Amino acid sequence: MMIREHTGSDPSSPAVWRVESVPSSLDVGFMLAQRGDMSVWDSVLAKTQSAGRGQLRRQWNSPPGNIYAAVRLPLFAPFITAGASVAIGLLTALALRKFGWPVALKWPNDLIVQGDGALCRKVGGILLEERGGVLLAGIGINVAVTPALANAEMRKNTTLDATSLAQTGHVPPAPEILWQQLVNYLYLTYTADSDFASRWKIQAEQMLLWRGETVALCEGETIERGILVGLSTDGGLCLRTGGQVKEFFSGTLRHVEDVSLKRAGYGQ
Amino acid sequence: MGNKTFRDVQEFLKGKIILVANRGIPARRICRSIRERFDAVAAMTATDIDKTAPAASSAQELILLGAEPRAYLDIDQIINKAKQRGVVGIHPGWGFASEDTAFPQRCKDADIVFIGATAEAMNLLGNKVHARNVARCLGIPVVPGSDGSVDIAGARKLAAEIGLPIMLKAEGGGGGRGIVAVNTESEMEDAFFKASTLAQASFGNPRLFVEKFLDTVRHIEIQVIADRYGNVFAFDERDCTVQRNHQKLIETTPSPWPGLTCALRDRLKDYARRLVKAVGYYSLATVEFLITPDGSPYLIEVNTRLQVEHGITECRYGIDLVEEQIAVAFGAELRYSEEKLRPSYCSMQVRINCENPQNNFEPNSGMITRYVSPGGPGVRLDSNISAGYEFPGNYDSVGALLITYAHDWEKTLAIMERGLDEYIIGGIRTTIPFFQQVIKHVLFRKGEINTNFIAEHPELMQYTDVAPEGERLARLVAEISAKGYNPYVRLGEYRSTTTPRLGPFEPVLPPIKSSAHRRASPYPQGDRLATLDFIRDSGGVHFSDTTTRDVTQSNSGNRFRLAEDRLIGPYLDNVGYFSIENGGGAHFHVAMMANMTYPFTEAREWNNFAPKTLKQLLVRSTNVLGYSPQPRNVMRKTGEMICEHYQVVRCFDFLNHIENMGPIAEVVLACADVIFQPALSLSYAKGFDVQHYLNVTEDILRMTGAMLGIDPKKASRHVILGLKDMGGVCPPRFMTELVRALRKRWPELVLHYHRHYTDGLFLPACGAAAKAGAHIIDVGLGSAVRSYGQGDVLSAVAYFEDELGLACRLNKNAIRDANFVCKQIMPYYDRYCAPYFQGIDYDVTLYGMPGGATSSSQEGAMKQGYIHLLPYMLKFLEGTRQIIRYHDVTPGSQLTWNTAFLAVAGAWKRGGEDEVRYLLEVLNEVTRLPEADLSQEMRKARLSLYRDCNDALRNLLLGKFGKLPLGFPATWVYESAFGTDWKNALTRRSEASPLETLPDMNLDAEEKACADIIKRRPSAEEFVLYLNHPSDMLRTVKFRAEFADPNNLPLHVWFEGLKVGQDFYFNETNGKPHHLVLLSISRPSEMGVSVCRYVLDSEIMSCEVQVSQPVVTGYKDTLLADPADLYQVAAPSNGDLWVMYVHPGDIVKAGEELFNVSIMKQEKAVFAPVNGIVKRVLKTADFKEYKQMVPVREGELVVELAPVPRICANEACGQIIPLDDCVFCPYCASRVEQFVLSI
């Protein structure tokens, strides 16, 4: 049972397909796109998912009360480059900031709420999937509910605890309403800003979590430590290690307290 | 007998070896003292990294510690080697093991004198908890806190007692490290855990104690020295209040703070002496206090070693603390006493760290390319860097300690300012420019600061860290020379290092007679009515010169620079022109995009070198100088800056929608000395007749009149009406008609005619207009005239005067001189910036493309492979302008061109040239026949005309640009352009000006965004530039910071660079002269990098230039898929293969997912393009199982398929039949079916 709405009063504004319970809104999105019913910036919003997925098919716990959406992105810059993930992360973070939540981006596109002191918690995640010329961004945001960690695997791999928008103290509207506002913002910001394709990287860098601090990028057994310098033109992560700046396109980012040697020899 | 004296120790140490167990600055400092007074042998420890460091040169011997960078902490190894070498004393320096109580103990065991405190004393005073206890026993006030280390419960309890905020400090820590602040109760747990872990890792001791967090304090410390005989000397205080994250940055002595009275000083010294005496301490120590604003001191810690900032005390008293420390260690009696030693100087130290303050003080390591150290009176430098040194990242980031001293605070500050100015460290970022900001700060100079100073004044981080201008320009020249072309001018790779050069640009400039200079302009300035009255009364024809704007915009890609403007400007100024058009239009944008010049600064300079003539600029109605409609507040800001530098503002709108001009008109009309020139965009076509233009003019005058508070007739005296024919499409007879009608209707309205040369009828058209009464004509210098700009001035004057009998009061000699100079400039622009297609094209009267865009649009078509379709595109232009009616000036001309391009290219893609021809036939019919006569077939066919159009055309049809001059086009156009949505589109269209609904921009937020990016406050001009063209303004700011002002480079260097060995003299912006010679440009390395070596003035420098793409070796091993072979399935982009779904032998259907590649959280599924069987799988992965990803490159062959083979029909067998012509299955001998397995 699908309901089709528009995000704005203007019928040319993006359409939202609302569904109750589906395996994954990404799958529904691809199906609709194949039918020709999903244009760029249209989206699918599910109340709950039975097989919600994150990166590399990890499980994305999807209890009702949150946003589980898949929105179709245009195949133009910057979404046509490797930096697509960061670009959509930036837009989403900007939207949430505008609506009143202090959101930062943990590379590449985890949505992080910064709490007191140094505490950071993850409030949303974005996964891009491309099939046959259709690019969808699966966006999951904890609105009212903080899901329990799905299983041991997730706990091991998660570097940050989860939270929800509701927990920040600034009460969010119902997920359907918030999603409408969000998509509207994404759509308007992207279409109105002719400079977005050249400016997004600079804006994204400003929102990067742990910028200037020592971080560790982990991939399997390899760990690369360095200072998070910024983003490369393609949205890759730039770390300064061993005197050089290197670019990375994969791995999980963690924070590292400054325990490296160089401080041990530091004077007063 | 008496105590041992200093002399005794000196005797003893002659020729003996003293080892410094440290590196860098402290090691060098101590080695110097060892050699100076004691004539002893200075030895220094050195790991492999430090063996060749600059500081190592101060030692006579090196004790090598091997490859492990942390070997300085290995005291056993050090002592062993020292013992082997026969070392008599070890000085630990500061940091590393200097406060490790094991060190003095082991030295004692090895019978080596430890130059520092004993283990017991170090333990008593060095351990913060013990020190506090001792202090408390002596009645010395300490910072409220725990008596010893606490656990988290204890911390909570204490926090409740002494009140938040508190600090958790590592018991074994020091030097400001291992401190975590706790502001709220809820933070306590996390903070405790964090601090404890940090402490364990940094100091090997996880224990923490609690201290009250004192705010707005000053950090004051007392240096003491004591000998074994109970003598103690306390020096004057050191003020270390300027800190960041508890790390000291600047230290001064005495404290400049007025609150540090003699009484307080004496009190602190007394505390320090008593503390040291109480534990029987000897050697150097520093007792550190925090002082609250009311002057109450609190002890924080005692440092039982030599400190980084000891140098300022040495400068204050004129002594050497290290030699005294050594002497004391070997048993000498202290030479200092209150009677004999008095302070004389003020002194200050800044720590020159290799860190980037603008990037959170991030340390950077790398090659130091340039090093010039300061000198002169009052300067002391302790450093560990030099030119060519590769600053390592393994140790701390202090590069040098810069100390200055003088009799008073003011002079000390002044010397420091001078010293920082003179200090040049190139190749890495340092804290030098940051300190320059601090020294300048009023609060710092007054001494009215506390430990929060740096944190509370973020403006200290806003500066531009740039090398001297000469150096930057030299690097730019090196880069252009190495590449052979200038990448920043954005003309592609227009030449290479071997292309023959045009040669040096050394223009001959005819002298300007002072009489010509002094002759004033005939045009009244400063009062627009007076200027316009003069034009009205003087009769004859007036002229405006467009050489440096529209002519070179159209013919030289807008690359004509300020540097060349400066050359011809002074001559143009003496011609007697009404105005010189020197700005606006696309010129404004390209100034930043390719010429790296600030356009308003350029305008200001114009008013300096050509002050007599009015300056004119061109703006678009809604966009002003940008590329999208501007909100009112931005327009006001831009408009006001325009009015500061220009006196004539020509404004046009491609729809002639007058409301669009309203906001900018308001701003300009408010300035009494600026003339507003609204312009009619002219086309020559049905509907755009004289009456139409008279109506538009009426609208203009009504609007301007309303703004000035007068009726339209009167308003016609206050403005100029521009007549803008961008394509050169209006024939002379039409101009005659139009101008006559305008002159008749509004006799007092001054008319200014602007026409392009494209159709070849420039002169007849201008003549017709002038004869009919147009007052001002736009012309250019003959030597710059090419196909698309304005025509030449001298021939126009000759034509008007001789043929038409009109007076033209221009100084022809001045024009000749200007021409001569311009003639010498043009060859460079012609060679490198000329448009691809040139020449006169009368057919522009049919297709209507404006001068500037003509070549670039057609070039675009050619580059995309559509040159054969170009005539059709032009034909389409001819037709569509009769359907959708507006004028072909920016952005209308782009719109029309894109529409034509998309329509023709789209038709061609669908059905080849036949389809295109049909399309044009339809267009022809539609424009030729009236609506009623069109056949059903035609009515249907015409809907395809705009089916391929883009959003811009749709927006135009919706009225988003403004009101179309002849109303909305026919309804079928909407059906064609919008498809199924057309009815909707009709309801949505409007005739309102787009500016009406534009909300104001948040200027404060934009300014902050800009400041965040450029790391300083933008100037007023920079901000306006940012609002109009953000990315290009940032490009120019970045370029200027890196390369300075390129207008200092002559034309040939700007385009071609230098030859090796060629002498080049240039001045920087402030006039300072420089000499540059390229010594060599190396062949590009494998990474595509060339090394340029050159001599700049008297220094040899080098830089690396990326001249080509690196040859990526990994590619040799990567098998690329053949894009033409459907059976070869490639990776869609660079990334990681994380799951492979198929195996060799699997049968797949078209559309089935084969594998998935992930790049930065974007997962791309790759499908089988055809049915087939998997022949081979070159890479495989299964992340879920094995947690491994396999990198792949774009285009790399990952899966190879083969056509589906036949399968034996015998179910029990089911084998694949290997050969196509088998009749019987080779495995089971059953008869093979004659058809291929269909799936």
UniProtKB/TrEMBL annotation, chain A:
Bilayer-spanning residue ranges: 75-96
Name of this protein: biotin--[biotin carboxyl-carrier protein] ligase
Keywords assigned by UniProt, alphabetized: Biotin, Ligase, Membrane, Transmembrane, Transmembrane helix
Known catalytic reactions: biotin + L-lysyl-[protein] + ATP = N(6)-biotinyl-L-lysyl-[protein] + AMP + diphosphate + H(+)
Gene3D superfamilies: 2.30.30.100, Bira Bifunctional Protein, Domain 2 (3.30.930.10)
BPL/LPL catalytic domain boundaries: 10-194
Molecular function in Gene Ontology: biotin--[biotin carboxyl-carrier protein] ligase activity
Automatic annotation (TrEMBL), chain B:
Keywords: ATP-binding, Ligase, Metal-binding, Nucleotide-binding, Pyruvate
GO biological process: gluconeogenesis
Enzyme nomenclature, EC number: 6.4.1.1
Requisite cofactors: biotin
Domain Biotin carboxylation: 14-459
PROSITE patterns: ATP_GRASP, BC, CPSASE_2, PYR_CT
Molecular functions (GO terms): ATP binding; metal ion binding; pyruvate carboxylase activity
Cross-referenced Pfam families: Biotin_carb_C, Biotin_carb_N, Biotin_lipoyl, CPSase_L_D2, PYC_OADA
A single cellular component GO annotation: cytoplasm
Keyword Oxidoreductase: no
Annotated InterPro entries: Aldolase_TIM, ATP-grasp, BC-like_N, Biotin_carboxylation_dom, Biotin_COase_C, Biotin_lipoyl, Carboxylase_cons_dom, CPAse_ATP-bd
Ranges for domain ATP-grasp: 132-330
Annotated ranges, domain Pyruvate carboxyltransferase: 541-816
Record protein name field: pyruvate carboxylase
Top-level taxonomy: Bacteria, Pseudomonadati, Thermodesulfobacteriota, Desulfovibrionia, Desulfovibrionales
